[in-house]
Automatic annotation (TrEMBL):
<dbReference type="Pfam" id="PF02350">
    <property type="entry name" value="Epimerase_2"/>
</dbReference>
<comment type="similarity">
    <text>Belongs to the UDP-N-acetylglucosamine 2-epimerase family.</text>
</comment>
<keyword id="KW-0413">Isomerase</keyword>
<dbReference type="InterPro" id="IPR003331">
    <property type="entry name" value="UDP_GlcNAc_Epimerase_2_dom"/>
</dbReference>
<feature type="domain" description="UDP-N-acetylglucosamine 2-epimerase">
    <location>
        <begin position="33"/>
        <end position="383"/>
    </location>
</feature>
<dbReference type="InterPro" id="IPR029767">
    <property type="entry name" value="WecB-like"/>
</dbReference>
<protein>
    <recommendedName>
        <fullName>UDP-N-acetylglucosamine 2-epimerase (non-hydrolyzing)</fullName>
        <ecNumber>5.1.3.14</ecNumber>
    </recommendedName>
</protein>
Amino acid sequence: MSSKATQPVKRPKIAVFFGTRPEAIKMAPLVSALAQDDRFNLLSISTGQHREMLDQVIRIFELPVHHDLDVMTPGQSLASLSARLMTKIDSVLEIEQPDFALVQGDTTTVLMASLACFYRHIPVGHVEAGLRTGNLASPFPEEANRVLASSLATLHFPPTTTSEQNLLAENRSPDRVFVTGNTVIDALHLEVQRQQNPAIKEEIERTLGDLLPSDWRSTRNVLITGHRRENFGSGFTAICDAIARLATRFPEVRFIYPVHLNPNVQVPVQASLGKLNNVFLLPPQSYRPFVALMRQCTLVLTDSGGVQEEAPSLGKPVLVMRDTTERPEGVTAGTVKLVGPVKDNIVHHVSELLTQPSIYDAMAKATNPYGDGQASSRILNAVATLLQV
Ligand code: UD1
Ligand code: UDP
């Protein structure tokens, strides 16, 4: 054996940050790929911006967590959360000195991790880069978080050519921008495949069977999620009023709503919808039963980002309760419609989909504009090229 071959090979240490439910889902395939890749050492850092909702994902994907910064407090303000994140992330960076960091999306975790790394001259790769509405107030504060994260990143991983064009229009260097697809599709492919397993099927039936009537698979179900800060207050009032009216108009349809734990969501939703017979307010669901609900439902009513990407891949029409979206691909493809947090619009479009098969069929045509499930390997290859490993 040559002396060169016996030299220890330095494998760069790659820090992967996640803090909320969607970041963990979208980082899970990348963490698994990194853990199996001889070119790198994985350092997995959970900021704990979320707690129960994050832990559900960590369990399902069996994610390793090397540091849990455990920052969440009930009803946290953006400023206090940011301050806690900055201090705790920097302490870990000081101890671990990673060679490169990966962040995902547009949360406070992303911005603070990017800034803390920048201060320590650690290059950052931004996964799901380049999504833009062009309006800093919507989504709030996510549009600002992702614009600022782009300014700090060394490598940018836009999921689509639309998001790539946004980055190039901001003069990001083309040789640092890689269209990869969205890692949410990597995660979804993995989960849909796992749900073929009889033991997992049984686990899903048990979980949802405890929460819903036993014939839940044979009725028409509208699946609902909502948590955007810009919808707090009047937006949520309009959303709840719309759901209540729809529940009365369509008594045979079930409205299934796993409610986000943010008190700004829990309080109005429980107060206005808690007593309706055909509205089922569930705790936030673990990713596994939630994917099962998406696969079974008739349509999805949401203000979530990730759900806008997943549901069209499963052939489900998506009505987005927002005024703008940074995910225009689904709108262009015709599988997503923006209905705003506007009562009459929501009632009109849900009613239309429930009563007019031609409109339903046109929206349900499955397209998958968000990738082929290979995003993680593209990302790691780009990092390897930059780090010359
Ligand atoms: C955050 C992200 C948002 C993302 C969303 C995903 C920011 C500013 N917002 O919003 O971009 O779309 O996560 O869901 O980064 N809570 C719990 N347990 C949990 C999670 C939340 O009790 O597991 C409650 C706590 O009271 C917490 C509050 O929800 O203080 C708000 O959490 P936070 O992460 O600040 O905001 P989200 O609305 O969840
Ligand atoms: N999700 C989940 N359980 C739920 C609701 C959503 O696992 O009860 C998943 C969903 O499949 C998607 C992600 O959470 O992958 C979206 O998270 P969220 O809506 O909280 O955040 P956003 O995507 O808007 O940032």
